[in-house]
Amino acid sequence: MLVFSVPRFFFTTWVIVVSLQMHGYRSCIEKERKGLLELNAYVNSEFPYDWPNDTDSDCCQWDRVKCNFTTGSVVGLFLNSTYTVRPLLNLSLLYPFRELKTLNLDYFNSTGWFDNIHELKDLRNLKLLDLSGNMLSGPLPGLCQLKNLRELDLSRSEVIGRLPQCFSSLTKLEVLDISSNKFSGTSPSLISNLSSLQYLSLSDNEFEGVFSVELIANLSKLKVFKLSTRTSFLQIENKISLQPRFQLSVIELQYCNLETVPRFLQHQKDLRLINLSNNKLTRISPSWFLENYPRLQVLLLQNNSFTMLQFPRLLLNQSMQILDVSSNKFYQGLPESIVW
């Protein structure tokens, strides 16, 4: 058996080597390997990432690092959940990674804005930037230079003020999440320019005034829209002159002082999740949603002012998975027609 297994081993090895050569595989670039080690020493000196300080180690194989296997360039850094508290991140540590496309700093534990966020403008290939779960303060316009961004997550970061108008230039954005911050004023009009958006979350901020659905009416690719406020002064404009060009799968409108279902929802035929909880809905029965949205899987209507709950047996179809109508004002129990 040994006579045959040895040649097979060398043949397999030769095939792997030739395959890698044909695909132009290279190990990581030495300048970037050193840059990673400097970054590791700075951000996580107490509990460093498991990156060996060994010149023979290929940094493209390291945890939290993704490379382009043709060029060897680092294209992804996943520095999320870094628990050593640092007051600032020195952005010059990112300079070696010119081909970086994904930067994940979710719960990085940065306690303030980076040393100069404007420096991020040099990461021109960046497509995904996750700064969520940090305590960020200071100006945001530096992000407006990242023209190739597809996804931007600023959620849960204690950002105060208004969303910079220059964000309207980020026209390639497909995902924008600014939820759970302290953005204030009226809803940002700039979102009407972000024609590539598929996911938009403005939830859990301090927006006030009237939100005009026409701001998003022409976002034809939009699939998920979320809006809520911590104040009691936000309302959804119920009249709309434009029929929305989008077909949503998910709509969440919490704490929006809704007394009736917004009219634009009547044009939506593909909704799978509706969350209108924490409003003032009274003029419609929960059964209306099941009649109008046959593909609906999740319906959240808790903490409204519904008084009647009548669901014919046929409406409880197989698509419905979660129904929450708790904390309403029903004057009778669940109807017998409901079978769980």
Main features:
twelve-stranded mixed beta sheet, 340 residues, repeat, 12% helix, three-stranded parallel beta sheet, single chain, alpha/beta, disordered N terminus, 17 strands, elongated, 3 helices, transmembrane, LRR_N_plant-typ, transmembrane helix, glycoprotein, Leucine-rich repeat, LRR (right-handed beta-alpha superhelix)
Describe this structure in words.
It is a single-pass type I membrane protein. InterPro entries: Leu-rich_rpt (IPR001611), Leu-rich_rpt_typical-subtyp (IPR003591), LRR_dom_sf (IPR032675), LRR_N_plant-typ (IPR013210), LRR_R13L4/SHOC2-like (IPR055414), RLP_Defense_Trigger (IPR051502). Belongs to the RLP family. It is found in: Cell membrane. The strands form three sheets. This protein has a twelve-stranded mixed β-sheet with strand order 1-2-3-4-5-7-9-12-14-15-16-17, with no helix packed on it. A three-stranded parallel β-sheet has the order 6-8-10, with no helix packed on it. The longest helix has 21 residues. Helices cover 12% and strands 16% of the residues. The protein is built from three helices and 17 strands. The N and C termini lie far apart (63 Å). The chain is α/β, with parallel strands linked by helices and 340 residues long. The chain folds into three domains: 136 residues, Leucine-rich repeat, LRR (right-handed beta-alpha superhelix) (Alpha-Beta Horseshoe); 95 residues, Leucine-rich repeat, LRR (right-handed beta-alpha superhelix) (Alpha-Beta Horseshoe), CATH 3.80.10.10; 64 residues, no CATH class.
